[in-house]
Each structure stands twice: as C-alpha cells, then as structure tokens.
Amino acid sequence: MGRIEESVEIDAPIEVVYRAWTERESLPACMRGGADRGAAATEVVALDRIAWTGGADGQSGVVTFHRTGEAGELGTRVMLQLDTEPHGLWDHLVEGLGFTDRHVIDELAAFKAYVEENRPGLAA
C-alpha cells in the first residue's frame, strides 16, 4: 500500500474551499475517480474533514480543511492523505516512479486555481 500526503494553500475562505471540494465538477480528478468506482464517505464533518474508503481501486483517504492567516485574511490549507493499493506490475511501477504523487500534486494545484479564479458559491 502506498501513502501520499500533500497539501495546498488556497486564497479563499474555508467555506468556499469546502463547498468546491464537495461539488463533483470541481473535485480534483484523482478524487472523482474513486467516487466513480464505488468509494464511500466514512466520515464527513462540515468545514473540517471528509474521509472515504473502498472502491474498485482500493483507494481510501482523508482530506482536512484548515483556516490560515490572521484575523481578516481569508485562506485555507487543504491537507490530503491518500492511501492507494497498487494492483499488478504497471501500478507498482507507476507508484514507484512517483507518477501517482505527481498526479495528486498537479490535481491539487488545478483545484487551487479553480477555486481562486471562480470562487464557487460566492455572489459576484
């Protein structure tokens, strides 16, 4: 089993970031795949954490949301812990070479850009 731990700081209020994470359209692709394959939430604490397990790919994990900055500054740190279960030689090779980690980093960066550019859930 492999474990990936990554975080990203997003220049948006925690409410906006959490809402974006829970919307299927803006969810990072590495998370959407698990949901499409039968992963199920095991714990949901609004504005704090979401944990999931299962699915055909054996993926499980937890994402936590943390307010950052001083009073009056709006920011959120998203911390992701993803456990993967590689199957077969190809999956082990991909994970061993760090491609899975890189994919998660890229997806978190894309999520950050989406939230900061669109501010989903906020009136314009």
From TrEMBL:
Q: Which Gene3D superfamilies match?
A: 3.30.530.20
* Highest taxon of source: Bacteria
Coiled coil ranges: none
Query: Which InterPro entries does this chain map to?
Result: ORF3, START-like_dom_sf
The family database entries (PANTHER family) matched by this protein are listed as: POLYKETIDE CYCLASE/DEHYDRASE AND LIPID TRANSPORT SUPERFAMILY PROTEIN (PTHR33824), POLYKETIDE CYCLASE_DEHYDRASE AND LIPID TRANSPORT SUPERFAMILY PROTEIN (PTHR33824:SF7)
Q: What is this protein called?
A: Cyclase
Instruction: Give the originating organism.
Output: Kitasatospora cheerisanensis KCTC 2395
